[in-house]
Specification:
Number of helices: 7
Order of helices and strands: HHHHHHEEH
Strand order of the largest sheet: 1-2
Number of strands: 2
Largest sheet: 2 strands, antiparallel
Distance between the termini: 48 Å
Structural class: mainly alpha
Amino acid sequence: MNCRIEKGVEDLDLGCFALVMATGIVSIAAHLLQIPLVSWPLFVVNITAYAALAALTAMRLGKYPARIAGEIVSHTHGPRSFAVVAATCVLGSQCLLLTNNRPVGLAACVAMFFGSIHWLYLAFRHERQNGERAEMDGQQAAVISPVFRMH
């Protein structure tokens, strides 16, 4: 693999999935406003971006599993991994809303289920680390507070 590409894979930030999340939200809004000339192209962009990011993340997970694990449990870098969950669930919602296809809808529900499981894992992982309550900043508290009562 090209050295520049390998370095890019190694340094890929899970927060990049926010692109899929934001694009999906705009696409869903355009669909609800009945603007298919906006919603469908953004849907195609979203599927492409998600597939590319998922492939790069899988490559990164294969080559640098310890680094990803460290980022997920880090209280400074970990909240970015919630973008993967949001992107998965927003893309699943897009699939359900924009297509009237049962297999696509089933795949979307499976994606949202796994996104929810991933969210629960991350939320619990960030709440307790080494058996002690970790200090959280405002962004982390906003993401986790629906699950846990904050003190």
